[in-house]
Amino acid sequence: MSFPPMTPLAIRAYTATTALGHGREAQAEALRARRSGLRRNDFGEGATADARLETWIGRVEGIETLTLPPELSDYDCRNNRLAWLALQQDGLPDAIAALRVRHGAERVAVVIGTSTSSIGASEEAYTRLDEGTFPADLRRPLLHTPHSPGHFVQLATGLRGPCVTVATACSSSAKVFAQAARLIHAGVVDAALVGGVDTLCGSVLFGFNALGLVSTQRCLPFDVRRDGLNLGEAGGYALLERCDPAQPGPTLRGYGESSDAHHMSAPHPEGLGARLAMQDALTRAGIAPAEVGYLNLHGTATPANDTSEAIAVGGLFDSRLHASSTKGWTGHTLGAAGIVESVFALLALERGLLPGILGSDAADATQPDPACGPQIRFDNAERTIRYAMNNSFGFGGNNASLVFGRE
């Protein structure tokens, strides 16, 4: 497809909260130290160890003890608690307030990505049925819909522009950047708060396990021994608005989306949709593949995903590219993966920190899959780059790629 480069959008603030910790510094420190946030599965209130799925997870600390402000208490659930926790990091409340003053609350959109939304609250409601109905404290219809996180974030921030929740599985919070860019470029709004949040729950853990996708070991992206993913939870945000030459900083330069519709849960074996999304993102950014310094791969550590993505990457980029999956740090955070890994790409731009790929533990050397190309890097690197990319691919062939730049 041929189209002119898009007008870049400024990224005024960005943050992520994952199993590595709360905020950007926690993410950067763990990436630099090659310290994983994965732990043996201990999720499930009241569940015995025998009842838990044997796997590793990326669990965020502090959710259970967090209390929402009184005005938001009607929306209390694990997912919204994490959304609130992530919202408090890296000066984001002040940055949102400044955006609201500059443009007016009605001119700032909220676009949030999720995969399972507040389904954990729905699980709890069904286990506590009161004469066939949800218990009174969970009898809140909106909480049990996909739009729950978008609605919650809009209430929590006081923003009153268009509010959209994107639910395209694991590409959700990458697609929010594309949705926000269209809203801004069309003149519907002047700025947007984008982000994503997903939390662990039984449906996620046992659902993915039923598909045969969950590993009992720590995940090994692009490693010849890989046999499945580890699930995680996370939340993160970024603020987008039109560029101002007086305020240099990171920018969204391009996005690409595709839907290969090859299979409900398996990627196209030759990475057709992945390559289309990456190519369109590069075209919108107006850059050549050789100009990209770092690519954060979707890289879930399932045999099919990593092979098809490596084929797509090898068909576009030469051996100079540093490409890696960071799922070994955080686990696969599903609908939050797009925003979390965009934060990692932005850290690569701003700090020159290019993460590699983690092995199963610090003493265990990685074993790169020889079927994957030289673009896939296992060791960290540090160097100045001008462009970074992020890939996020979801079930059903919902693919998204983003290009970020440093002015």
How would the blueprint of this fold be written?
Elements: E1 9-18, E2 21-22, H1 24-33, E3 39-40, E4 56-58, H2 78-87, H3 92-103, E5 108-113, H4 119-127, H5 148-157, E6 163-166, H6 172-185, E7 191-198, H7 202-210, E8 231-232, E9 234-242, E10 250-259, H8 272-285, E11 294-296, H9 303-316, E12 322-324, H10 327-330, H11 337-351, E13 353-354, E14 381-382, E15 387-394, E16 398-406
Helix pairs in contact: 2-5, 6-11, 8-9
Question: Could you explain how this protein is built, in words?
Answer:
There is one protein chain. The chain is α/β, with parallel strands linked by helices and 407 residues long. It has one domain: Thiolase/Chalcone synthase (Peroxisomal Thiolase, Chain A, domain 1). The chain contains eleven helices and 16 strands. The strands form three sheets. Strands 1, 2, 5, 6, 7, 9, 10, 11, 12, 15 and 16 form an eleven-stranded mixed sheet that branches. The longest helix is centred in the C-terminal third of the chain and has 15 residues. The chain starts with 8 loop residues before the first strand and ends with a strand.
Give a summary of the structure in a few sentences.
By secondary structure, this protein is of the alpha/beta class. The protein has one domain: 3-Layer(aba) Sandwich (Peroxisomal Thiolase, Chain A, domain 1). The chain has eleven helices and 16 strands.
